Amino acid sequence: MRKIFLLCAMCASVALMAQTPAIGDQFAIDESGTGGHIINYEVTSVGPNEVKVAASGHTIATGVKLEIPAEVTYAEQTWAVTALEDEVFYENNALSEVVLPSSITEIPLRAFSGSSITKITIPSSVTDISDNALSNCLNLTEIDFEDVSTLKSTSWNSFSNSKIITDQTADGWVTIGQLAVNYRGAFSETLVVPEGIVNMTTSVYYPNASGFDNVKKIVLPFTLKQIDPYAFAQDTEQKMANLETVEVKATTVPQIGGGSAQGYDLRLFSDHQLKLVVPCGCKAAYQAESMWQTYQEKNQTYASIEENCTTALDETATDASAVKRLVNGQLFIERDGKTFNAQGIEVK
Fold this sequence. Notes:
Layout: H1 2-19, E1 26-31, E2 37-45, E3 50-53, E4 66-67, E5 71-74, E6 77-84, E7 97-99, E8 106-107, E9 119-122, E10 128-129, E11 142-145, E12 153-154, H2 163-166, E13 172-176, E14 179-184, E15 190-192, E16 199-200, E17 217-220, E18 226-227, E19 245-248, E20 255-256, E21 275-279, H3 283-287, E22 294-295, E23 300-301, E24 304-308, E25 323-327, E26 330-335, E27 338-341, E28 346-347
Parallel strand pairs: 3-6, 4-7, 7-9, 8-10, 9-11, 10-12, 14-16, 15-17, 16-18, 17-19, 18-20, 19-21, 21-24
Antiparallel strand pairs: 1-2, 2-3, 5-6, 13-14, 22-23, 25-26, 26-27, 27-28
């Protein structure tokens, strides 16, 4: 009797071990009842339970919206979907609209490159879009960022040769919503980043851009919240030799890369020691952030930090009635008969 009991216990133990998930396990979730997709996942962590969307083994229903879940069930356990594998949907010709979950932080290398994707919704949790992640997507016409200000990094070729970029043929700024991607055409004496741009996460330089030495002043908009350290230069070959002034209109100090805690500043190369101009009443706020005290990877200190306390029509606003006013050192914007504070909240 004892032998039988021990044998049964061993069998149960072996069965339990066979069902215990391990790192590297792959499993498919059949969503045929809700769209026809079969998505393959791979276990990346056990305790906490985490998986990534694997790079192969998928069956995508042609032309059907794909919503990648934040959680899946495997072996009667809940698993957080925390990543996409490199080239996860590379050259997939069945994709149309894709919605990413708020549980991921990166769109990795060539994740959707060369695919038939038409639209993608990117959550605010995503801070990095890697090399060629959305390149060569010839049907991609819409990228919907939940909050583009949380995006910390993209590559110069993250969106290259995709329809959302190639459809923009005029010289000037190439944008995706509130994200400035790059600048094409010849640079003039003043390089103005337009109002409405919230984020600049990659170099402004475009292959056919010219006249870098023409630029004497860079003007960053009131709406800017995030800017990449390399937004205006990757190396000394992209030198703006005659640059003298950087003016920032934002009353809330924009973050550079990961912010002061990461030791970032703007990578600017010039033959002049640069002057930084900030809004009236904001000098102390900018001085308090080490990322705005230096430039060129901490090798140069701004010659001065000055305040622009002139009250003038906002020449970059699309609505000519938009006027900036300073009241006791605080900035207010009047537009369409309404008054807004520096955070864009209407003031009664």
